[in-house]
Amino acid sequence: MKPAPFRYHRPSTPAEACEALAAELRDGAGAKVLAGGQSLVPLLSMRLASPPALVDINHLDPAAGLAAIEIRPEGVHVGALVRHADLLASEEARLAQPLLAQALAHVAHPTIRNRGTSVGSIVHADSAAELPAVLALLGGSLDVGSVRGTRTVPAEELFVGPLESSLAPDELALGATFPALADGAGVAFAEVARRHGDYALVGVAALVSNDTVKAAYLSVSDVPTVIDLTDVPDDDLGEAALSRLDPIGDIHATADYRAQLVRVLTAKVVREARKAR
Amino acid sequence: MTTKLMGQPVQRTEDQRLLRGRGRYADDVAVSPGTLHCAVLRSPHAHARIVDIDVSGVLDVDGVHAVWTYDDLTGPMAEPLPLLIPHPALTEGRTQYALAKDRVNYVGEAIAFVVADDRYLAEDAVGRIEVAYDLLPPVVGIDAARAAEHLVHDDVPGNVAARMEQATGDVEAAMAKAPHTLTLDLTVERSACTPLEGRGTVARWDPDTDRLQVWTSTQTSTGVRAVVAAKLGLDLGQVDVVTPDVGGGFGVKINHPWPEELLVPLAARALGRTVKFTEDRREHFISSAHERGQVQHVEVGFDDDGRLLALDVRFWHDHGAYIPYGLIVPIITSTQLLGPYKPEVYRVVFESLYTNTVMVTPYRGAGRPQGCYAMERTMDAIAGFLGKDRTEVRAANFIQPDEFPYDQGLIFQDGRELEYDSGDYPAMLEKIKALVGWDDFPAYQQEMAAQGRRVGIGLACYVEGTGVGPYEGAHVHIETSGKVKVATGLTTQGQGHQTAFAQLVADTLGCRFEDVEVVTGDTRRMPYAVGTFASRAAVMSGSAIHLAALRAREKVLRIAADALEAAEDDLEINDGVVSVKGNPLDGGAVIDLGTVAVLSNPLRYAFDEKSRVATQFTVGDPGKPPVAEDDEPGLEGKDFYSPERSTFASGMHAVIVETDPDTAEISILKYAVVHDCGRLINPMIVEGQIHGGVAQGVGGALYERMAYDESGQLLNASFMDFLMPYVTEVPDGIDIDHLETPSPLNPLGIKGAGEAGVIPSAAVFASAISDAEGFALTAMPISPSDLFTLRQEHS
Ligand SMILES: Cc1cc2nc3c(=O)[nH]c(=O)nc-3n(C[C@H](O)[C@H](O)[C@H](O)COP(=O)(O)OP(=O)(O)OC[C@H]3O[C@@H](n4cnc5c(N)ncnc54)[C@H](O)[C@@H]3O)c2cc1C
Known about the structure:
Chain A has about 280 residues and is an alpha+beta fold. Chain A has helices at about 15-25, 40-45, 85-90, 90-95, 100-105, 110-115, 120-125, 130-140, 235-240, 255-275; strands spanning about 5-10, 30-35, 55, 70, 75-80, 140-145, 150-155, 160, 165, 170-180, 185-195, 200-210, 215-220, 225-230. Chain A starts with 6 loop residues before the first strand and ends with a helix. Chain B is about 30% helix and about 25% strand. In chain B, strands 3-5-1-12-9-10-11 form a 7-stranded mixed sheet. A 6-stranded mixed sheet of chain B has the order 7-15-14-13-8-29, sandwiched between helices. A 4-stranded mixed sheet of chain B has the order 18-26-27-28, sandwiched between helices. The interface of A and B includes residues 195 and 201 of A. The structure holds flavin-adenine dinucleotide. Flavin-adenine dinucleotide binds near residues 36, 39 and 57 of chain A.
C-alpha cells in the first residue's frame, strides 16, 4: 500500500497550479490535484490510481483566498482549501444555509473532516458523498480555473458519471457556491449508514419552499439525483422517488432494503423540511 | 505493613507509554537508513496452477536487492510449513509452503518475496513480476466444500481434513425416549481478529558472531525461535527472538511461522543486512488468518422442564486452504458448547473442511463463540417450545455448585479430560437477572410496544477453559539497586502484564510495586515458554511468577537472617526492607533488598562503594567456600508452573436491544456482564478485557463478516468495508458484576479472563433480536439489511 512513483508540484499561487496542470497535460497523462488527500491518497496507496504527477494545493498563498468561507448575496462561497471541519463549524454558513451543517455532520469522522476539503468532495463526485447531493439540490455551482481562464459550472452540469465530474483534466476548482436558504423555505437531511460516519447506504436531502418540494439522493444512483416531488401526495413520496432511482444491492445492503430506506427517509426529510420552514 | 495489591484496581503502568505514542512496535525497530524492506507478490486467484514465474523484469531495477520464489528455497525451507498441532483425527493435514510451489489455494497466498531499499521500490518490483496461471475451479464456502464437486487439494477426498466424534453415551436411545425433540440449523459467518498492528518481522544477521536477532510481532517468541532455527538450519543458541510491543493479537499472531517470519531472517542472512517486513492492511485481510465460519445442525431431546436428555450436534467447520493450527478451534467448539449445562447424553460430530480461502486459526474465543451460539440458540428454542422463561430452562440444566469438580466426559483441546474445577452458575444467573432487570423487562417491552417501539432482551451463558498448559516459567532477579527484574517468556499484546505481574511480585516478595520491571517475550531472558493465547497468561505466568518470587523471597530471608542475626521465621519484608516482625522500622535492625543482593554475591573485585562490602575479605566465613555447595551467587528465583489441566472461568451476558420498525436498524440499550475468573488480580484490568471483548463481540454479531464472492475474492478487504465497530457502535456503558469462585488448581486461585468478553456475543444478540422481532434468528452476524429481509420472509 505505497503509491507508485509520481512527480510532485507545490505551487504557491492558483496561477502556478494551473500552469503545472497544463504543463503535465501537455507532456503526458496529466496531473491530479492533491487537496485534503482523504480520497486521493488511499487510491494512490492501493495503486488504484497512479497519476504521473500531483499538484499539491495545500501550500497556496493564503492571499489567494482559497481557504475562506464567504457569505455572498448568491449564497455561501466555499474556497477550495476550506476543510469540512471549518465549514461545519462556521456559524455564518449554518445560518445562511443550514443544510450544509446538517449534511456535513454525516461526512466521515472528525479526523477526516479536519483534512478533507468540501470542494475536493464535490470534484471527486462520489454519488455516495453528501456534498455533491447538497450542491445539486440547492442548484449551486463550482468556480474553476485553468490557463484558459475561469468559468462557473452549474451543479446540473457538474456530475457526469460515477466518480466523474465535468472538469477538464487541467482545471483547478477554486470554490463552490451553495445558494442561501430562501425566506419561507426549509431543508432537512437524513441518512442511514452502517456505522457512524460511513458513506450512507441511502441519504436524502430535502428542500421545501412555498411552491416546490425537492429531494436529492445519495448512494442510489450513479450521480447525485434531484427529484421534484412537488404535488406528490405524502403517502406516495417514496414510490415517486423510487420510480426515478435505481437502488442496487452490494455487500452491505440489498436493493430492496435500499428501496425501503428511500421510502422511509424521503417521508422523514420532507416532513422535517416542512417543519423547518 | 504493605497493603496487598492482589485484587486492587491498580492503574496500568504501561499506559503512560502506550497512550503517549511511546510504544515500540516491530515497525519501530531498526529504522536506520541501511535497513532493507520487503514486499510479497500474492496470488490474485483463489485456485490455480502456477505455470511460470518470470522475475526478469525485476532484477535490474535500481534499489532491488533480491527476489525469492519457491525455486530459490532449499532444505527445510523448501518443505511445507509445519503442522503445529497434529491430532490423530487430522488425517489429511495440509500446510502451505513459505512461497507457493506449483499451486495457489487462496487469494493472498505468497508467491514471491522481494527485498529492496524501501517498501515503495519493493512494491514497484512486485508489480513487474509476471506469473502465468492455469485457473482451477475454486471451492468457496461450507456448502461448496461439502458438495465436493471440486477439490481444494486433489488428494483430499470430500475436502475433509478431519472427522471427529465424541459421545458421552447412546444419544440415539436417549433421543428416542425424550418426551420432546427439536431440530435447529444454524450458521455463523467468517470474521477475523484484525488487530490494528498487522504482522511485522525484523531480522539482523551478525556474521561476526554467527547469530541471528529477530524481532517479530507474535504471540509466541519461543515458538518463532524454534521454527526459525529449524528452518534455517541454525542451533537454538544462535537465534534470539524478541517481541516488542504488540498492537493486538487476538489469536492471529499465535500461528507461526508466517512465511515472512522465515523469509525475513533468510534474507537478512543471505544479504548481510537488516531486513524488515511490515504487513499492510490489505495483506492482513487476505493473508493472515480468519475464523468463526461454521454450519451447525442440532437435535435435542428434553423433558417438560426443559432438561436436556439428549443433545446431538453435527457441525461443519471451514478452516480455509490449509490447517497449520490443527483442530484446536473445532475441538473447542465441540467441547465448550456444553457451557454450564449437563445434558444426560451428548454426542458431537464435526468435519473440518478445506476451502479456497484464507486459512483459519484461533481468534479470541477460539471456537467458543460458535459453540455458545449453538447451545444458547437451543436453550431459547426449548424455552419457546415449552412456553417457559428462558432463564428457567437454563437453570434447570445447570451443573450445581456442589458437583465440582465436574467431569463432562469429553477430551478437551489439550488432550486432557474436560473437568470443570469450580463455579457457581445459579448464583451467577441471579446476579445477571438483577443487573439487567430481567424480571421487569416484560412490562417495559409492553410499554414500549404501546409507543410503537420494538425492544428485546437476550441472555447467554458460557464456560471457558482457560490457562491451558503445558507450562510457563518465570525468573525473578533482585538487583543490588533493590530493583526487581522479572522475566517471563510469554508475550504481551497490551493486556497489562507489567502491572498485574508486578502486583503479584510486590505482594509475594514484599518489594515496592514501582521497583518491579517485567520483561516478556524475550528469548534471551526466558528461553522456555509457550505463549499468550487461550486466556492463559495470568494463570500460567502469574502462577510461575508467584512461585519464582517465593523462591527469591526464601533466599532473601536466609541471607537477611544471617546478617540481622535473627531467625528467618521472625523476619518480614515490607516495601523492599527486611526487618524483625514487630520491631519499629526506624529503631530496629533492618536490611534492604539491594544490600541483601550485594551480600548474595561474593566478589573478588570491588567496582564501586557498594560492592566493596561484598568482596572476599569482608563477607563469608573464611572456613567455608564463598558460595555454599547447594547455593548460587546472586539473588534470584526461578520456577515453572505446569498444571494438571485447565481452569474453567464462566460468565453470563445479557443485552437489551431496540430494532427500528422501519429501517431495521439495531441499537443497544443496555449491556450487562457477570463474570467469574476466580480470584481477581486487578479488577480494572479484567473489566478492560471485558470491555474490549464486548466491543469485539458487537463487531462479530452486528457488523463484521468476510464477504467472499464465489470466485474466492474477498470483497471487503479494507476497514472501509470490513465494518469493525467504532466507539459510536459499542455500548456507552457496560454493567459488570464479578463473582469469584477460586480455582483449586493454582496457588493464587485465578482463572483466565482475556477471551471471555467475546464468547457469548453472537448468542446474546441473536436471543435479544429474536425476542424483539418475534421470530428466531438462525444466522449470525445480522445487519439491518439482513433483518429487513427476514422480516419480509416472516410477514
Ligand atoms: C474513512 C473515510 C470515510 C469517509 N467518509 C465520507 C463520507 O461519509 N462522506 C463523504 O462525502 N466523504 C467521505 N470521505 C471522503 C472525504 O470527504 C474526502 O475528504 C473528500 O471526498 C475529498 O476531499 P479531499 O480534500 O480529501 O480531496 P482529495 O482526496 O485530495 O482529492 C479527491 C479528488 O478530487 C480532486 N480534487 C480535489 N480538490 C480539487 C480541486 N480544488 N480542483 C480540482 N480537483 C480537485 C483530486 O484530484 C482527486 O481526484 C471519507 C474518507 C475517508 C478516508
